[in-house]
Amino acid sequence: MYRLLIRPLLFLLSPETIHHLLISILRVVFKIPGFLPLVKGFYHVKNDFLETDFLGLTFSNPVGLAAGFDKNASIYREFQAFGFSFIEIGTVTPLGQPGNEKPRSFRIKRDRGLINRMGFNNNGAVAAAARLDRKRPKGLILGGNIGKNTLTPNEKAVDDYEAVFNAIYEGVDYFVVNVSCPNVSDLRKLQDQDSLELILGRIMELRDQKDIKKPVLLKISPDLNEQQLDETLEIVERLKLDGIVATNTTVSREGLITADQEIRAIGDGGMSGAPITARSLEVVRYIHHKSEGKLPIIAVGGIMCVQDALNMLDAGATLIQIYTGFIYEGPGLARRINRAILKRRAGEIS
């Protein structure tokens, strides 16, 4: 029904317009008495076989919603109803900022993908922290994706990451350090060894000072070559980060069906969806092999169907996140993935 009827109607409007419209609608309809448990009853797959331990946290299932949907920690209750065990809020920056000029989000329907250059638009760390203080749904795990403000020069970026980390520490269960998004000017330069070590080193020092030490992961780009991946993994191991989120969006435009003229008209931005499925899987597999299976991985990027999700788990990921797949395949995708995982795990034990 979603793909045949609802999606064509939604796709008549721009991606960002639809995003804000849906959030507004969800906020209203979920206030109707009994509506939230009805939705949860339909989309959630409850079974002990789906429980997944990851970095000291127990997830009710392995499927989460990636950063970008709930930038301001304002609608995680509503999104959790669609079958997700965890939701990553953000990217959160110290100060609120509007992001890049519109239009800044584009569908490439023939390739089942998106290109966006949102630019970390969000209301800032203080606003996010206030919303995270509210009582959350039972069993929901929240991640905090943190970044720097666009106007902050890279040489002072470490201060931004520290500010957000401290501001939302009490409200989330784990952190993802985002230095790989291609939609903020010069941000990806922070993936260079010296900058990365400075930022991650500061974050880990801060974490070690906390009474409760929450997991810290690094989100990496699919555009890193093997040497760059090796250098990054060396830093992750040396600083004792807890895991990797693989991968962010890509600046590559290789192998697209969409006409070159249309792609050039869209311009810069990070591409997600089916065009990056193979590369994200390759990176997950490489990290798992290189670390001899010792480095925990959350897979994200190009998970558009059940088989994509299973492939990521087979490649070495423990958890997966969806984003563009949620847009193209609808709210039932998490349920279908969880059913497939449950069938597999129940079969392995029987």
Can you give a write-up of this model?
The protein has a single domain (2-349), classed as TIM Barrel, CATH 3.20.20. Helix 8 links the parallel strand 11 and strand 12. The mean pLDDT is 96. The strands form 4 sheets. It has an 8-stranded parallel beta barrel with strand order 3-4-9-10-11-12-14-15, surrounded by 5 helices. A 3-stranded antiparallel beta sheet has the order 6-7-13. A two-stranded antiparallel sheet has the order 1-2. It has helices at residues 2-10, 15-29, 35-43, 76-80, 125-132, 157-168, 193-208, 226-238, 260-266, 277-290, 306-315, 324-329, 333-349; strands at 52-54, 57-59, 63-65, 86-92, 95-97, 105-108, 113-116, 122-124, 141-146, 174-178, 216-220, 243-246, 270-273, 297-300, 319-322. With 350 residues, the protein is α/β, with parallel strands linked by helices. The protein starts with a helix and ends with a helix. The chain has 13 helices and 15 strands. Helix 5 runs parallel beside helix 6 and helix 7 runs parallel beside helix 8.
